[in-house]
Amino acid sequence: MLFPLTRAWTPLQKWAIILSTATAILLSTAGIYRISGDANRRHAENKRRNVAVAVFGGDVAFKQFLNAKKIMAQRLYLKQTDASKAWPYSLASYIHDPEVDLSRAQVDALHALFASQTSYLWTHDVPDDTPVMVKLCLPDYGVLFTCTSADFTVQIAICMKCDLFAVFVGAGNGAKRVNREEDLDAMKPGLAKLLGELFPLASDITEIRLKSSNQGLQPTAGGVSIYGNLADSR
What we know:
The structure is a single chain. This protein is α+β, with helices and mostly antiparallel strands. The protein has six helices and eleven strands. It has helices at 11-48, 51-54, 59-67, 104-115, 188-198, 203-212; strands at residues 70-78, 94-96, 100-101, 132-135, 143-149, 152-159, 164-169, 176-177, 220-221, 224-225, 227-230. Strands 1, 2, 3, 5, 6, 7 and 8 form a seven-stranded antiparallel β-sheet that branches. A two-stranded antiparallel ribbon has the order 4-11. Strands 9-10 form a two-stranded antiparallel ribbon. Helix 5 (188-198) runs antiparallel to helix 6 (203-212).
């Protein structure tokens, strides 16, 4: 801000000039800090919402998943015991149906669904001071995708009843689960369409596919919310 020096300013005018200059500097500085703060928040959010880390446990498994040329799908059925249901988080607790091959278009569709940030609700990958939201139900995986690339295997188990998934690195029932995010609500319509193509005679998948087109993103089971607040699950 420039002012002519040849003019004799009154004390009141001088104070007005000083105040206006100081105000301009403060507003400019505040704008810089606001822009910087917004950028930092976006950077932190993008760093948290990292699909490779939160879903696949790291870049290696994520890249192997994306590079997998052969992907198989099979139905899973939770084994029943005399006392109760088997432990539902373990792949060893399920009966595995024969596998079916995904076409090139179906492989691309699965890659697109699990690689996109918008496919997740991000209810688990949150700042340390934010409560984690978890679903108050146990999974009952109904479909397993096995993605093979060279000597590396990534398995993705799907529960369409509570809209949960689990990612396992390694082959077989002893593979290690690696995912932190586990909600598939946001990708359910696209995933239900893919499952309908793979298992067109499965009545449970057909029903889910028909319902998913009219379903919102609020996860429900039997008409009630299945989200609970877990203050610290990490």
